[in-house]
């Protein structure tokens, strides 16, 4: 009787997990004995790091040719519940049919969602660029601004959050607004960050360059007081300031998929499951996790994975390798990813590329932008849809 591996989620971690699992089965001559099923609503990878760019509806990559090449089955469904005692995944297909998947090993790669705290007006009035529908809705709203009366409120955009995503969204806006409203439009972009520094999680090293870029593009930023209320006409900050704007974009960080609470009782403050070195969910013997749902140690210096495609891709390879290896009874591998880099897009100014957890600056301006283009258009896309290349891409010991 054949065995079954179920992978929940087709984001970066899920896609590369599927390749990692298929590779282990191929190497061990067990491809015909184990069925690998990738479960996600659509057979496409949303290139989430690019959703701040123009034309977000184009930021997807088809998965079926690659999955067919490596023998991974795809199920178009939304997972609603995981029963680790019965080893079942309960899902609803895109056609509305309920289905139960029995598994021998489970790999959770269901990703993360935008943190949406109970800020008054957030759900009703704020836009986002976190998921594909969010980004498309925002793009349509921005394009629609040209049909509204030319007022300061129409021409003002408030970006709530001055972290990585907020900065990339904000610095893309000047070019977008000129294209939509006209080259002579007097628009205003304001970034509101509740921390005392802009780019608080990016550290002090790139901050002078970030500030230089913002000032050069005329983007305002306010720190030390977050947004406490949003309405149809703008925002209110904690220090009592009112900013009138017909566009408010929320970039308030990420939290793990709620499915983590169904496989683990040991979650961090972001809702991520605590995992062992081989990415096994602590407290289970048959459930693994990778990507944004896992709090995983990346190196021997005490650094943990971040919610980024950089960590998700490599962690996915290890997760896929280990879930298949464990099922076959061959040794698993400890996940390690000591190399860490950050490439922050700063719009027309360029980009800042850093290496190391202390973020030492390596490339800036046009050179940084070229590195960002390489990352966004080549390095984070799935491999070619031929079996050899696809299986090679699942090797956890290969370079990024």
From TrEMBL:
Gene3D superfamilies: 3.50.50.100
PANTHER family in the record: 64 KDA MITOCHONDRIAL NADH DEHYDROGENASE (EUROFUNG), APOPTOSIS-INDUCING FACTOR 1
Family to which this protein belongs: Belongs to the NADH dehydrogenase family.
Domain FAD/NAD(P)-binding: residue ranges: 4-315
Presence of the UniProt keyword DNA damage in the record: no
Key words, A-Z: FAD, Flavoprotein, Oxidoreductase
Keyword Oxidoreductase: yes
Organism: Pseudomonas izuensis
Name the record gives this protein: NAD(P)/FAD-dependent oxidoreductase
UniProt xrefs under InterPro entries: FAD/NAD-bd_sf, FAD/NAD-binding_dom, NADH-Q_oxidoreductase
UniProt cross-references to Pfam families, sorted A to Z: Pyr_redox_2
Cofactor: FAD
